[in-house]
Give the backbone structure.
Amino acid sequence: MDLLGHSAAGDLALLYAAAHSQRVARLILLTPGLRAVGIEDSDEQWRAALARRSGEPWYPDALAAIEKAEAGDESAENRRGYMPFFYGRWDDAARAHVDAGSAERSRPVRDGFAAAGAFKPGRHP
């Protein structure tokens, strides 16, 4: 099969392809995370990635929201505040996608998906 994974599902697609390579003809990863392959960004790399968007009009508010999240603010309102960093363009379509996704998210599911060790390389069956 051809397997496509986007964002966090890219991690899942990568783990599946590694475990079942004989079943995957092509693997397409769109903005995947790096946890599945054991790569962690350093704080300097993370800050440099954020700074590359500093010319955007939403940057100051989104950066403030990132800093609040790093300090422990997990509110939906704050999460929406930093979401522009995760889109190539922060336009009406991106905002609608975030708003629809936020309404459909379940905290227990989200927490389980990203549980400690969930994407540890070699953990898959």
The longest strand covers residues 2-6. The chain has six helices and two strands. The chain has two domains: 1-40, 41-115. The chain has a mean pLDDT of 85.
